[in-house]
C-alpha cells in the first residue's frame, strides 16, 4: 500500500479487447463541459490534454464524482505537482452552477465555508461545505441535494445566535472525509451554526428568495 489515489478506467477496444487505463489523480485536472467531466493532463505552456471524458446521466452523480475526485486528490500523500492541476469550483461555469449564497459556519473549533448552489442547466440546488482556510480550502467536505425543498420557505428556520435548522435533509448529506459528520439533531434535522448572525439571516433571506423562483417540483 502506497497511500496513493488513482483512477482506473476500463473500456473496450475497436476489436472487442479489454483496455485498462490508470493514472494518479494528482496528475489530472477536472474541467466541466455541460453534462461531462474532462480529466486532463497539464502542459508546461498552461494548456491541457484530455486524458478521459466521463459522461453522466444525472447531475447529482456528476457532482458526487467531482467532489470525491477533488477530496481524494487532496488526501493523496503526494502533493499536487503544479498549480495548473488545482481544481477550484470547476462545476461553477457558464451554463453550469452559480452561487446563490456564501458564508462561514462553525463546527466546534473548525470553520467552514458554506455555499448554496443552483445549476442553470438542470435546476438542481445543493449545499456544500468546505474548509474555510488552509491547504484544504475549498476542498469539498460534504454536500446535500435539496432541490425537493425549493418552494418551502419554512424548511429553513432561524433559531437564535446564528443557528439555522434544516427541517429535513433526504437523502442525508454526502461526506467526503472519513469519520466526519455534519452537525444534526435527531435523524434528519441538520444544523448550520453560522459564524455571525448576519450570515445566518442572509442565508435565510437567500433561501426565501430562491423559493419565490419556479421550482421543478411544483
UniProtKB/TrEMBL annotation:
Organism: Hortaea werneckii
Protein's name in the database: Uncharacterized protein
Pfam families xrefs: PH_FT_C (PF23076), PH_FT_N (PF23074)
Residue ranges constituting the PH domain according to the UniProt record: 2-80, 99-210
Domain of life, per lineage: Eukaryota
